[in-house]
Every structure is written in C-alpha cells, then in structure tokens.
Amino acid sequence: MTEPARILVVGGGYVGMYTALRLQRQLRAELRSGAAEIVVVTPEPYMTYQPFLPEAAAGSISPRHVVVPLRRVLDRCRILIGEVLSVDHAERTATLSTLATDEEGTAPVELTYTELVIAPGSVSRTLPVPGLAEHGIGFKTVEEAIGLRNHVIEQMDIASSTRDPAVRDAALTFVFVGGGYAGVEALAELEDMARYTARYYHNIKPGDLRWVLVEASDRILPEVGGKMGRYAVRELRGRNVDVRLETRLDSCEDRVAVLSDGTRLPTRTVVWTAGVRPAPLLAATDLPLNERGRIRCTARLSVEGVDHAWAAGDAAAVPDVTSGAPGGECAPNAQHAVRQARVLAGNITASLRGQPLKEYAHAYAGSVASLGLHKGVAHVYGRRLKGYPAWFMHRAYHLSRVPTFNRKARVLAEWTLSGLFKREIVSLGSLEHPRAEFELAASPPPGDDDKPSS
Fold it and tell me: For the chain, what is the radius of gyration of the CA atoms?
C-alpha cells in the first residue's frame, strides 16, 4: 500500500490558511480516498485578520471576530498546534514541538512530508534600543491589540486618580514608533477612542492627552503615495498628534522616551510598530534565502532550485512579473499574500496531477488606511481619496476580504450597532491575569504564618 501524499503547511496566517482551504477543496477526491493528507502546523488555532486589529483595539470590533478558527474552516485538514523548529528538505523532514511535547517534557518530534508549503509569516523587527524590551508594546497580534486598549484606559484611570503631576503627564503621554500602516492606524484609532473616553472623566480633557508618532523616514504611509501621506500628517497634526518625521527612538529606559532630536518624553506607553522581519524559522531550513532572509522563489511560487517546496507571503521573495523592472519583488503585504495563496494551491494540485503550473501575476491595486472613525486616506487604481470616502472604502474592502461569511456578517452587525449606540469604554485588564483573584483568595491571610499550630 502506497503512503499518502502529505502536504505540510507551515503557518496558519494568510498564506497558510488560504492555501490549505483551497487545497482541501481542490483535492477533495484525494483526501476522501486517503491518497493525500494536509497537515497544518501553527502556533495558534486561529488566523488573525490583522487589518482589523486597530478597530479591535478601539472597541469597534469584538476581538473574537478578528480571528478565524482554523479547525472550523479547515475541517478536512489535520491541525497541529505547535512550532516548527527546523526543516531538512533534503530528507523531507520537519522537526516540531507541540503542546503535547511541551506538556510531556519529551523531545521534539519529526514529521515527514511529500510537499512543503512554508509560510510562517513575519515577526516584529526590533532594534537594540535601551529599555525597549522592558517597556515596549507590540501591535501584531490580537492579544497585543486588546492589551494596548486596556493599557490606554488604565493610564487614564491612573492620571485621573494620582496627585502627582509628573505621574499624570507620563500616564497621558503615548508614544508610537513607526509610521507604516500598523503604527498610524493604531494611533489614530486609539486617539479617537481615548478622546471619546475622556468625556467620562471629571478631570481629564482631550487636550490633556499627548500623542506622539515617531518615524525615521521623511513621510508616513508610503504605500498611499506622497500626497496622501502628507494629507495624513496634516490630519493627525490637526488632532494635536505630534508627528516627528526623520526622528528615531534612542532610548526608553526608566519610562522616559528619548528621541534623536534630543526630546525627552516621560511616558508609560511606548508602542513599537517599526516594521517586520522574516520568521526566524527560515534560518533553520536548508532552503535558499536572499539577502533579506526571505526564501528565494520563482514566479510559480516554488522555491528556487528546489523540488516539492513552495512559499508565499511575508516569508517569500516572489518576483513581480508585472513591474517591468528587473529584480522587482512583490511587496510582503496581505493583498499579495491572499492572491498568492490561490495560485500556490492551484500549482500544488497541478504538480500532484502532472499538470502545467501558472505564474503569479498581480499588479498592485493600491492601498487604503483608516485614520480613525470616518477618517481615512486611499490611493486605489490611481485615484486618491481622503476623509469619509476613503474610510468607507477601507471598511468595504476589508469586509470583502475577511474570511468566511460568518465573520463578514458579525463584523457588519457590530459596525451597525456601534453606529447606533455609544462606544464601549471598559478596560478588562484582569483578562491578562485571570488567576490573580483566585490566587489572592487562596493565599493565607497576612500573619497566619506566625500563628502557632494547634
């Protein structure tokens, strides 16, 4: 009896989920007969739709509607919650640790495969800034988004109750580093939310909050073009956001953000969104990498010079056949990742069936970005939009792209309800430490240790 063709998908993000989803549809007969098997290895049992993280942080969308449960969507795939530690493609073997191996204290397990789809995505790119590891807050996961929302409201609570002006000023100063999508949208949405929340504090006015955006280059949101980027700067500055271009964060030790222009900002909030880098796993494979640490790929999304290995998304350097410029590569963004996954799944199916492969070709359509409720910028198919039309296009586009009809309906319902009722301004910081209350109740009262036993 021949072994089934095992397709190993590393990663459960855009590329991993969409590739596995299309494969389970295209290989329905093979999966039913046992001739093929799809295994997805991912650290989390869900896919995060990252464009909705800023709205989740602002409370416009429930956190559970920003994620897509993989077991429900990929019902014909085998889902392993764990982490691939290394890949030896020459031996068609991946070494991984799972929740079970961690719990049992056993060695990592080896999994053999026939076809490899490597799509672990990216991680935050950090720099050796003093104090960043201790005080910085990321914005790449739904946990970080909700944690940041709780943190911002908690700082307002601290500022409202303290008698120390220095503590109050530091609590109401919020520093965001990075002028790309993540940084600008997160700051804009949270500033909008915090300005609304301030009306419920008797001693905090919107003008008391200080928001600072630090960007090392000379513009923000480069994807929407220079004109729209300059409009975004004017829009943010019009809302009293201190936008610092051509400026870097030199230190954030002792809760003081020191900028390269000499400014010192006492703050309890430093949000780091200064770019991403390929997942560290890529360095633990025998696959060819380019100078930026991404996997070298062909236009057919196969790994360059390697058989039975495929890659796409943030981890892959995919030639842009539509650019017309030699050596051009597709940008590592969601727009390309979702479309690459479709071609990738089709090419794997074609490869298994001995059919010709297709090249990935997609001209960049443009970009949209939210600047808070009813505000945005867009540069789509050569047309520039700003304000409400851009914000509406941002919502419409991402509603059309979020996976599953279930999620689309829930997100649309939440947007409708949020337009009819007031914002939720509750901080649920205790969610980050759910056992704290019980541990306190279970611990002996103070002084019990000193009492003599009966």
Answer: 24
Q: Are residues 111 and 165 in the same domain?
A: no
Amino acid identity, position 175: V
| pLDDT tens for each residue of the chain, 454 residues long | 468 899 999 999 999 999 999 999 999 999 999 999 999 999 999 999 988 999 999 888 888 899 999 999 999 999 999 999 999 999 999 999 988 887 777 889 999 999 999 999 888 888 899 999 999 999 999 999 999 999 999 999 999 999 999 999 999 999 999 999 899 999 999 999 999 999 999 999 999 999 999 999 999 998 888 888 899 999 999 999 999 999 999 999 999 999 999 999 999 999 999 888 889 999 999 999 999 999 999 999 999 999 999 999 999 999 998 877 777 888 888 888 889 999 999 999 999 999 999 999 987 677 888 898 888 998 887 788 889 999 999 899 889 888 888 899 999 999 998 878 777 777 665 566 666 777 777 878 776 655 555 4
Q: How many domains does the chain have?
A: 2
Residues 181, 221: Cα–Cα separation, whole Å: 6
Q: Where are the alpha helices (DSSP H) in 176-221?
A: 181-197
Judge if pTM exceeds 0.85.
yes
35 lies in the same domain as 119 = yes
Same domain, 193 and 157: yes
Domain CATH for 253: 3.50.50.60
* CB 261 within 8 Å of CB 215: no
Domain boundary among 315, 336, 352: 352
Query: What stretch of H or E contains 177?
Result: strand 173-177
Q: Which domain holds residue 340?
A: 5-124+277-352
The candidate with the shortest Cα–Cα distance to 241, out of 232, 249, 250, is 232
Q: Do 140 and 73 sit in the same domain of this protein?
A: no
Which letter does DSSP use for residue 181 in this model?
Answer: H
Residue where a domain terminates, one of 274, 297, 326: 274
